[in-house]
Design a protein that fits this description.
Elements lengths: L2 E2 L2 E2 L9 E7 L6 H12 L6 E7 L6 H11 L3 E2 L1
Parallel strand pairs: 3-4, 4-5
Antiparallel strand pairs: 1-2
């Protein structure tokens, strides 16, 4: 485990102590701000965290937005 500032980076062996689940169904209007705000908050915590974005097969591109965030943030996944 490495320490980057106060936040501990998650490694493959480290399990998150906090998981936040966000269900998505046609959420393109609010998803970017929601995920950005949540990531900003989670960066202030010292324990390992994760965001789970659950795609409920909406048709507005929410899954693509979520995938882009997950590609840039290792503690987020779809």
């Amino acid at each position: 485990m490495t320490v980057k500032g106060k936040k501990k980076d998650m490694t493959e062996n480290m399990k998150p102590t906090l998981s936040i689940i966000i269900p998505m169904y046609n959420e393109t209007a609010i998803l970017p701000d929601t995920v950005r705000s949540l990531l900003s908050f989670l960066d202030t915590l010292t324990e390992p965290t994760e965001i789970l974005l659950v795609d409920d097969c909406g048709r507005d591109g929410s899954a693509a937005i979520a995938a882009a965030y997950c590609a840039a943030h290792p503690n987020a996944r779809v």
